[in-house]
Amino acid sequence: MPNDASAEGDTAGGGTWRDRHPSTARTLAHATTALSALLVLLALLLPNQLTLLTPSQFARIPVEGILGAALLLVLPPKTRRAASAVAGAGLGLLTVLNLLDIGFNEALGRGFNPVYDWTLLGDGESFLQDSIGRTQAIGVAIGALALALALLVLMTLAVVRLGTLMARHSAAATRAVLALGTVWVACTALGVQEAGVPVAAESAAGGVENRAQQVQASLADEQAFAKVAGADAFAHTPGNRLLTGLRGKDVIFTFIESYGRSAIEDPLMAPGVDAALADGTKQLRAAGYSARSGWLTSSTYGGGSWLGHSTFMSGLWIDNQQRYRTLTAGDHLTLTSAFKRTGAWRTVGIMPGLTKGWPEGSFYGLDRVYGSRDLGYKGPKFSWSTMPDQFALSAFERLEHGKSNHTTEQAKQRANPHHSKPLMSFVILTSSHNPWAPLPKMIGWNEIGDGSVYHAIHQAGKQPADVWQHTAQIRTEYGKSIQYSLHSLIAYLKKYGTKNTVLVFLGDHQPLAKVSGEHASHDVPVTLVAHDPSVLKRISGWHWTPGLMPAPKAPVWRMDTFRNRFLTAYGPRPGSAPSRPAS
Length: 583
Known about the structure:
By secondary structure, the protein is α/β, with parallel strands linked by helices. 53% of the residues lie in helices and 10% in strands. The strands form 3 sheets. Strands 5, 6, 7, 8, 9, 10, 11, 12 and 13 form a 9-stranded mixed β-sheet that branches. The chain has a two-stranded parallel ribbon with strand order 1-4.
């Protein structure tokens, strides 16, 4: 710091910095004012969808700015400063929420829910770590937090500055507000538009109103859903009357990550995926299997796989985190817990994407859950996916399915009484999880070993940063990932399936909008494969398409309707007499 003598010298030599450099000071002041006005204008006009970020969106007159300026002009100084600070912080928060909306719309096909979705930000950070590395992900997280704080602070300072200047030049400010108000009213009355966008804007007020309604609806939904989850037509059906049409069968429910309708119907991705499904249909038919396929409308899009899993299994529409928590904290009957209730199956989960504890396993009625650390994998991670699908299925065969089918009854009883029962399995395949680089390749089943063989495949693969430079390349690699998952599952069934194997496989949700398109449906394919004709005969009334690929006009059901249809097809309706087990 300068001493007193130097300070006096500065004063004697010309006063403050502003006094010594008046031209520069005026320029900086004008620039700061202009930037403050621009920042406020951007906050008032910023849309919450990336596709709406066009120049015409910002060539509008926001009515909230006019009304806000008029209010600040009539307030006394102390109240004006407080109101400016509150308004600025509010605009900063609104901007942060709009930016979150943009991100969520791009990834999940929906806006950000300020009641439920804060916990998903941690999942997003974990995904970044798996995709671009821990250091870079931490850098992105710090940058995002810094941006949010900067918006709150800078927006507050901007509104306070503008309010002070308007009070200092109240006459000119009043004339400007009246003029802008008149123009806004005229544009509204005449319907004036710029590139199809109304010049008279009121989007910020509408956004605030929508947020308030969203919060209110979310809080009301929490109570309403708890009542819905407590009502279940199958809740009190005895185990000996459930799933009688599948007794003695090994039933495998398999989710393929991001396997959506776009993979089958999009012109860029469909040729390879459709060929894999057509070839798989032929291979399985030659091995004695038949299949039927349809469509389910998922409760989620682009991500949030657990919401799709729980919707499918529970028969309830689980489209947000609070509903998921409410569901898994209760005892609502799921497809998996229905198998558990019968006492006729051993129930297991194969979840290579699980890297930490999963208390939901007991809710799903699983005797044993195998996470990523339990499957014996010694190879590299493929971005988010902890291991290739073929390895996960090989581990499933080694740890559970093979023990159920490749030993005699006496040996099974001696080794483990659980293995004397057929198996119900809940399998999650993750190789088709974004960022779809690098991708694994199919290898011989006898080459898999502990997964060390995948190091060379991983090194030869593409990197996410390279793939994500071009949308067409992202979509191409996504299509390849779906093909790999399908090849893995079909090859597994062909090699290790038996006459008693029943496979249900489906997608959990569509891939994000960058792959599936801005207006893609939430539909995913679902397929049931069986060797025993009587299994498929029970669903003949579903009118699904023969084979592994659903036809464009195949039935489309909401995903939450599947559980009841399945339990009814393979067991009696509640209150009816038990049906005879399939031979």
